[in-house]
Amino acid sequence: MDTSELKAEGIRWDLGGLYTGPDDPHIEADLAEARRQAEVFAQTYRGKIAGGHLDGPALARALADYETLDELRQRPSFYASLLFAADTQNQNAQRLLQRTREAATDTANLLVFFALELIAVEDEQMAALLAAPEMAEYRHYLETLRRFKPHTLSEKEEQLLNQKQLTSASAFEQLYEELSGSLHFRLTVDGEERELTDGEVIALLHHPDRELRERAFTTFLETHAQHSLVFTSIFNNILLDHKIDCDLRHYDDVVLPTHLANEIAPETVEAMMHAVERHYPLAQDYFGLKARLLGLDQLKNTDLYAPIEAEAEEISFSQAQSLILTAFGRFNEQFAALAADFFYKRWIDAEVRAGKRGGAFCAALSPQHHPYILCSYNGTSRDISTVAHELGHGIHYSLSRRQKPLNYDAPLVLAETASVFAEIVLTRHLLAETQSVSARRALLCGLLEEMYGTVFRQTALTRFEMAAHRQRRASQLSTEDICALWLQEQEKLFRTSVDMIPVYKWGWTYISHFIHSRFYCYSYSFGELLTLALFQRYLDEGEAFVPGYMRLLESGGSQRPERALAQLGIDINQPEFWSRGFRVIEGFLDDLRATL
Ligand SMILES: [Zn+2]
User: Fold this and answer.
1) What separation in Å is there between the alpha carbon of 416 and the centre of ligand 1?
2) Average pLDDT in the chain
3) 3-state secondary structure string, 251-274?
4) Which of 315, 447, 486, 569 has the fewest CB atoms within 10 Å, i.e. is most exposed?
5) How far is the CA of 256 from the centre of ligand 1 (A)?
6) pTM for this one?
7) Which residues touch 529 (CB under 8 Å, ≥6 apart)?
8) Centre of ligand 1 from the C-alpha of residue 349, in Å
């Protein structure tokens, strides 16, 4: 097959719905208009909310104005972040991102008072305000916001922190992205010396040649290690910045801001993580089976994603599109129709290009705009799953567009509810279509590796991140400290089932979640286990399950996860809820064992 089609050449997103280009005069006009509206908003409402001058309907109008203004404020920097992700080495995109972020922060500072006054309102007065029917859709937003009351500072302090953010955490995030995006990896592939992007070199972990896999990952990690000074400094600064933030805001534990934002009790998260750790032997069982399939005594960690077929089948982007849409259509017509929009309306950028941000994401600004997907499609079955995963996010965002902007984003632990589901729907469709033992094996391995990577690996990543943050409370971490913590948590997961190559000690340098979002990784484990349990219900209940599931997706961020799930009859505080998720994994392991 011709590689241009394989690599999704020409599959680029159309950002025209936002702006016509980085020089579009509407960008500056929107920045100025957002600022003007923010000034008017502040003049109108400052002192009125905490002062008790507004009744329920008037406060609902203020919240609606705030939503409109906030969307306008963020639109330029949202656009710039997409331009930058598509081409991280483009100086115009870098400059525009910087400029629009600064302007958005300046404007946000004029609005800081609003959340602070909403938090300051006395409980009794808030109850009276919430009694107005116009306020019904803002209840959840206000209750969530007001849980931060003990951790909120004065307006001046909040403004200072916002401004200093640009030269603290945000600056290190940007440096991390620029450095990671600038790395190139020299490697001999098929007798030819080539310079590969991070996406291409990581894709080689799925190559059938064992020696090439190890050489590719070694080159990848050693290239990162050459910049260990910068990565260590970025890492330490992110840790310290978070520590300072937690101290200033009176959090006893560094994970609490994440749990509060996720609207999940710390005990619920710990119970989930302990359940995963108790089931680490399931991951080790899988690696034992995989070693047998590969004819090895023991896997190295560069074998985890090795194809079990000698010839990996390559799938063109257009084939991937039709397979995904057929699979989604068998689950639900609306699910397929919403996914089709991304292909037909050019909301997806799938082409492999140098300088493009690694990994994949689905980004959404507000219910007024459709979401966008970025990935680097290389033609492997793993890449199809990634596209299905991101489309799941896209469908979720599309369904929750009926929510108000303040209720648009699903809480993080529900954010993977559609993406992981979409991946399983795709794989089961492919399993049903294929009779060949070797092809079924490959599909089961792909699915189990996805579950390993999400449920087990993400918990190990979170344990590493927690350990690093807790150690930073005592002192700065040396490069060797970070490497040692990293290996320690990986060893707990692998035990004797996997032999880690020594250079894997640099594995922490390329996990961008550690830089961008504190303790994000546990939400993957949480979300996947949750989705496995939901999928089991779909298998048990069939069609009857679908309407409730779609309502869960439509609810976006309008209610607490616990409550949203209770409507589907799920109690996340019951230990058997988590066991049900593992039973699904055990079932797939049995299916794989049966092929041996
Ligand atoms: Zn995801």
Assistant:
1) 5
2) 93
3) CCCCCHHHHHHHCCCHHHHHHHHH
4) 569
5) 22
6) 0.83
7) 272, 275, 276, 455, 578, 581, 582
8) 16
Tell how far the Cα of 22 is from the centroid of ligand 1, in angstroms: 28
Tell me how far apart the alpha carbons of residues 319 and 311 are, in angstroms, rounded to a whole number: 18
**Do the beta carbons of residue 204 and residue 213 sit within 8 Å?**
yes
- Quick count: other Cβ atoms within 10 Å of Cβ 40? 13
- Ligand 1 centroid to residue 371 C-alpha, Å: 14
Alpha-carbon gap, residue 342 to 424, rounded angstroms: 20
DSSP 401: G
Report the candidate in 226, 211, 145, 140 with the shortest Cα–Cα distance to residue 180. 226
What pLDDT, in 10s, does the model give residues 1-18?
455 556 788 999 999 999
Distance 419 CA to ligand 1 centre (A): 6
Give me ligand 1 centre to Cα 415, in Å.
7
Q: Ligand 1 centre from 457 Cα, in Å? A: 14
- Ligand 1 centroid from CA 395, angstroms: 12
Distance 48 CA to ligand 1 centre (A): 41
**CA separation for the pair 309, 307 (Å, rounded):** 5
Instruction: Evaluate if residue 174 carries a pLDDT over 80.
Output: yes
Rounded distance from Cα 329 to ligand 1 centre (Å): 21
Residue 171 structure tokens: 């600056």
Dist. CA 138 → ligand 1 center (Å): 27
User: 311: buried, middle or exposed (CB in 10 Å: 19+, 13-18, 0-12)?
Assistant: exposed
CA distance 592 to 445: 8
Say yes or no to pLDDT of 312 above 80.
Answer: no
**The tokens of 449 are what?**
């590796």
Cα 223 to Cα 21, 166, 194, distances in angstroms: 34, 28, 15
Q: Find the 222 Cα to ligand 1 centroid distance in Å.
A: 28
Distance 523 CA to ligand 1 centre (A): 10
For residue 456, the 8-state DSSP code is: I
Tell me the pLDDT tens digit for each residue of 184-234: 999 999 899 999 988 889 989 989 999 999 999 999 999 999 999 999 999
How far is Cα 353 from Cα 356, in angstroms, rounded to an integer? 6
Q: How far is the CA of 112 from the centre of ligand 1 (A)?
A: 30
* Ligand 1 center to 113 CA (angstroms): 33
How far from the centroid of its chain's Cα atoms is residue 582's Cα?
Answer: 22
Distance 390 CA to ligand 1 centre (A): 6
